[in-house]
Write a sequence for this structure.
């Protein structure tokens, strides 16, 4: 039997191997198969990919991003589209699963041939798709705050970087509530990077860090941390807790007897949606730093809020800062594409060309609800004005401080030894340029 | 006799199956599709591992994500180090975590060969140790399943927390595809497809041979009634550990392929949902059949890719419902349908295949498993 | 800073608060595990949908409160009843056919958990829901340097109440005798005229109801989300496994793990504490795989 089996296997292997190897000679070059067509044709709809999670754990922040993208696209198309052509979004559901993110990115780029991607909320999902985006030399619009420390040539980010986010918040809180502060964050990269930046502002403001704790992602047990806070007696708490944990934190904060007037929580994430979920009595009195609040008082914002909430996309009832950042990214794309088309024409247009021509693009105050912003022409993040809002008893935010000038985004602000991010790549102190640094 | 149980027929089916799979790149030159199907091949490897461990060995492993993730991380570290050179000696994320030199953990991954070897050895070793500890204490069945789940969560937490070494939740993104020698493995090429295919082929055939061997006979006996086998004098714990470790090795191979194809690994690889999905693939396809499980993985992941968007939010609902139906009415999975179908057309009395008197090719579900 | 030093500063008052907190954490884990203990201890069923039963309890309370305006203290027992009913349907419709296949119940209930989670998401949406409680529960109690939130005390009280009620049920009622008989040997009990099927059905419903009860309280303590149950499942299972499947075992296991979690978190940080706890549990199971107080029953 042993010989039979071995024999059989040998034969199978030989035959199988031959059959498997033979067609290799017939396979055509993949690049040739689809490289010849142009990305955008005059008069044809302009296809873009919208890659957010519509189901799963990340659906809460991301579904709104899809809705507001659709609203922005409708608005742009009604005003004539881009060079007369309407934008056609290809909307996919990333199911909060990084394998799906990765697969859908490939599908959108290779199969649907979209000219740009709008997507991702968590840095983890962005990191999952960037290899594909960079390998295909495509373009991702990432509309959320993140930690920086990246220098790619294929992304444009419209959310605040760590160095912009807490710059005003920390000195403001130190001034109002005292020098001592306790840092609490979820245990992953973004809170840790934000805290590193915050420590620098704290030191400059003359404050003192009396504690730093990280909670496992998704955990909702804050008893031990609050116990430590009670022992340390800070003047205020700086929170980078995200997601469901954020809500549990604020609830338990009040339930454990802490008073928001004497020791408020200043955060980078707790906005209108979170406050509504936790209940206004738990959210009132705390502070948030964001470039946008729903209650901002300017005509563009009034038009945006009213128009959006009345439209069929406004079912969730708020305009959160993350949604506004997504909204303006649609306009950044519009202006960038127009500029690139004017410069290189339809035939030579590539996603990379859009990105290269997007440096310095402005979204004026009559279009952007948060006010004038523009894209940095070196690292392609956004110059914006962080604002500080305090949650009121009805769940809305009152803006208590606004930056005077737009703040420069600097992805490597706390890592000067890594170099400076320029349009061509990361320039190290010794002059060497590295591309696609993530 | 049902031709389903005929070993030669089974081998023929396997050969035919792989022939079809192998010929696909001849007709498909869309890079995206090839890459997608290569990832399905990885899922097939994982389903194969589950089938071997659970269907064949009777050990429900809810933590196959552990060797899968560890293998993936090992390969990612290897690929990352390939992009580092003397002017740029350590991965960028480490600079952001205040590390100014390469940690001891990463040093061996400078060499591609050692890196890949570690990517395969470490998960296998872990399975051997963890499995050994558990099985020696006679923790089996549902308790063992829960422990694997707990271990999975523990690994997730550990990798997340060791941010300076693993980049925490953002994961490791090697900037370039895998290079072996001077040769780059393009994830969108037929070669990548065939690499995964070859590994799947070898793993399946090796597993099939294992099931037909004497070792396989004892493992099946253990699945049926471990106590009885113990009374017969066999060291049950070593057999259980062995099958658990082998399935861990297959998962580690799958992990390495995964990173080669997607250039990304993160703690999400240790998600409980992913590991439980692997069990679903094998369960739906038919855990008692190696090919059945692989096909189960193809079907479900294919449905997710192509129906998932059409069904949007209801996809998980449909999947869950479908899985409940399969467990309730088709305990042998979809391949069970094939088995019953073939049972209607019995082939005449065939001479037994040499010294295998027992229908060892047919893995009957035993009572109480 | 937090990751580096293993032993932070030690202050007696806050350490004692940490100990009290440990009791609260233990009560949360125990409450989450009680339902599972009943179901596993009696029928040997591993219910992967247990987390979703907890979630259903929270959503039941939310629905009753938002749409019917029921006051909170009525929502809690109502959630018990509603989720018990769901458990009953599930047992009759699915679990009943799978008792001889423990691994398959594990998988089938996993399918159920997917369906429940997605179903709730489709009906209610993915966004977190707000569960209102009376003002009195929103504060804390202070006795000198001792500090505990009122709601945690409520959870502790409910847990103790539930544990005592279960003990009374199992050891002081006729039904309890039947359950214990079926636990020890189903066939023998049946030959004495006990309707084992009915016992299984009722205990499953009871276990589900307890999960619902837990959920309605957890929704206040934390948050009401379709995915909220997932974080309780593994913890609950570990308590059951360490305890060995009996009520006494779960109480002790829950108490020990909760207290240890708090103590470790006091000295180091939450993440590390969780990991150390996992390792300890694995080691414990290696030494004593049947758990703390395993039932003297047929081998499973």
């Amino acid at each position: 039997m042993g010989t039979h089996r071995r024999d059989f296997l040998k034969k199978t292997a030989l035959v199988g191997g031959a059959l498997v190897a033979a067609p290799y000679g017939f396979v055509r070059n993949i690049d040739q198969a689809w490289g010849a067509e142009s990305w955008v044709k005059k008069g044809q709809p302009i296809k873009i990919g919208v890659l957010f999670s519509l189901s799963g754990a990340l659906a809460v922040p991301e579904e709104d991003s899809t809705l507001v993208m659709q609203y922005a696209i409708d608005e742009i198309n009604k005003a004539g589209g881009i060079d007369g052509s309407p934008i056609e979004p290809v909307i996919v559901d990333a199911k909060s699963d990084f394998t799906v993110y990765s697969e859908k990115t490939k599908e959108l780029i290779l199969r649907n041939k979209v000219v740009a991607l709008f997507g991702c909320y968590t840095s983890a999902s962005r990191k999952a798709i960037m290899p594909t985006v960079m390998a295909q030399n495509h373009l991702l619009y990432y509309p959320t705050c993140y930690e920086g420390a990246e220098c790619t040539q294929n992304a444009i980010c419209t959310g605040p970087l760590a160095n912009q986010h807490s710059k005003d918040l920390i000195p403001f809180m130190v001034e109002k509530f005292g020098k001592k502060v306790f840092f609490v964050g979820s245990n992953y990269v973004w809170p840790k990077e934000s805290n590193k930046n915050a420590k620098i502002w704290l030191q400059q403001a003359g404050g003192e860090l009396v504690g730093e704790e990280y909670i496992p992602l998704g955990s909702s047990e804050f008893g031990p941390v609050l116990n430590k806070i009670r022992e340390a007696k800070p003047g205020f708490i700086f929170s980078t807790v995200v997601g469901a944990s954020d809500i549990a934190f604020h609830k338990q904060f009040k339930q454990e007897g802490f008073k928001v007037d004497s020791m408020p929580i200043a955060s980078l994430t707790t906005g209108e949606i979170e406050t509504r979920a936790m209940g206004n009595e738990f959210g009132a009195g705390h502070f948030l730093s964001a470039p946008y609040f729903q209650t901002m008082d300017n005509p563009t914002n009034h038009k945006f809020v009213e128009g959006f909430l009345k439209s069929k996309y406004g079912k969730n009832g708020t305009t959160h800062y993350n949604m506004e950042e997504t909204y303006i990214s649609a306009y950044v794309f519009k202006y960038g594409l127009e500029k690139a088309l004017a410069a290189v024409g339809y035939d030579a247009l590539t996603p990379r060309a859009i990105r290269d021509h997007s440096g310095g693009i402005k979204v004026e105050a009559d279009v952007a609800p948060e006010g004038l912003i523009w894209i940095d022409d070196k690292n392609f993040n956004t110059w914006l004005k962080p604002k500080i809002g305090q949650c009121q008893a009805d769940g809305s935010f009152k803006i208590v401080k606004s930056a005077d000038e737009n703040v420069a985004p600097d992805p490597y602000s706390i890592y000067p030894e890594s170099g400076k991010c320029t349009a061509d790549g990361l320039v190290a102190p010794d002059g060497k340029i590295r591309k696609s640094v993530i | 006799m049902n031709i389903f149980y005929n070993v030669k027929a089974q081998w023929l089916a396997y050969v035919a199956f792989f022939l079809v799979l192998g010929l696909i790149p001849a007709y498909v030159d869309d890079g995206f599709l090839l890459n997608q199907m290569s990832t399905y091949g990885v899922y097939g490897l994982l389903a194969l591992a589950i089938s071997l461990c659970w269907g064949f060995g009777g050990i429900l492993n809810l933590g196959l994500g552990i060797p899968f993730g560890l293998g993936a991380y090992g390969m990612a570290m290897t690929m990352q180090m390939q992009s580092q050179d003397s002017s740029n000696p350590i991965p960028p994320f480490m600079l952001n975590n205040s590390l100014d030199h390469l940690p001891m953990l990463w040093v061996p991954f400078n060499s591609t060969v050692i890196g890949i070897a570690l990517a395969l050895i470490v998960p296998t070793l872990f399975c051997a140790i963890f499995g050994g500890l558990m099985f020696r204490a006679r923790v089996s069945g549902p308790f063992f399943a829960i422990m694997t789940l707990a271990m999975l969560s523990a690994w997730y937490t550990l990798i997340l927390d060791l941010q300076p070494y693993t980049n925490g939740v953002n994961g490791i993104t090697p900037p370039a595809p895998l290079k072996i020698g001077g040769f780059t493995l393009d994830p969108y090429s037929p070669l990548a497809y065939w690499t995964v295919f070859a590994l799947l082929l070898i793993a399946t055939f090796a597993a099939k041979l294992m099931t037909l061997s004497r070792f396989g006979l004892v493992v099946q006996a253990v699945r049926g009634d471990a106590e009885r086998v113990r009374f017969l004098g066999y060291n049950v714990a070593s057999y259980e550990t062995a099958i658990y470790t082998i399935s861990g090795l297959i998962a580690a191979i799958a992990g390495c392929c995964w990173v080669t194809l997607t250039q990304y690994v993160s703690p999400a690889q240790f998600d409980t949902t992913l590991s439980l999905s692997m069990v679903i693939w094998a369960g739906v396809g038919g855990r008692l059949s190696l090919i059945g499980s692989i096909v189960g993985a193809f079907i479900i992941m294919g449905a997710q890719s192509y129906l998932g968007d059409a069904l949007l939010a209801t996809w998980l609902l449909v999947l869950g419902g479908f899985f409940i139906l399969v467990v309730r009415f088709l305990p042998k999975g979809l391949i069970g349908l094939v088995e019953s179908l073939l049972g209607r057309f019995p082939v005449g009395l065939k001479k037994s295949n040499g010294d295998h008197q027992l229908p060892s090719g047919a893995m009957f579900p035993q009572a109480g498993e | 800073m937090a990751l580096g030093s293993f032993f932070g500063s030690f202050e007696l008052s806050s350490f004692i608060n940490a100990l009290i907190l440990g009791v609260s954490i233990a009560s949360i884990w125990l409450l989450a595990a009680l339902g599972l203990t009943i179901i596993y201890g009696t029928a040997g069923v591993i219910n992967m949908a247990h987390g979703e039963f907890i979630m259903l309890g929270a959503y039941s309370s939310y629905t009753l409160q938002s749409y019917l305006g029921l006051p909170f203290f009525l929502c809690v027992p109502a959630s018990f009843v509603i989720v018990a009913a769901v458990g009953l349907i599930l047992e009759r419709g699915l679990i009943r056919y799978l008792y001889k296949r423990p691994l398959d119940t594990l998988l089938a209930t996993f399918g159920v958990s997917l369906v429940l989670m997605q179903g709730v998401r489709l009906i209610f949406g993915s966004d977190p829901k707000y569960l209102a409680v009376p003002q009195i529960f929103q504060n804390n109690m202070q006795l000198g340097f001792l500090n505990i939130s009122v709601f945690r005390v409520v959870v502790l009280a409910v847990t103790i109440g539930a544990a005592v009620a279960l003990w009374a049920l199992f050891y002081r009622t006729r039904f309890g005798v039947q359950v214990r008989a079926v636990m020890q040997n189903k066939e023998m009990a049946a030959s004495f005229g006990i309707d084992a099927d009915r016992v299984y059905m009722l205990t499953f419903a009871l276990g589900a109801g307890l999960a619902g009860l837990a959920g309605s309280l957890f929704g206040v303590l934390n948050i009401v989300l379709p995915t909220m149950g997932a974080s309780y499942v593994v913890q609950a299972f570990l308590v059951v496994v360490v305890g060995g499947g009996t009520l006494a075992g779960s109480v002790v296991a829950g108490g020990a793990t909760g207290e240890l979690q708090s103590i470790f978190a006091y000295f180091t940080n939450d993440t590390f504490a969780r990991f150390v706890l996992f390792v300890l549990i694995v080691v414990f199971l290696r030494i004593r795989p049947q758990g703390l107080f395993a039932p003297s029953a047929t081998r499973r």
Remarks:
- Chain C has a mean pLDDT of 85.
- DSSP finds eleven helices and two strands in chain C.
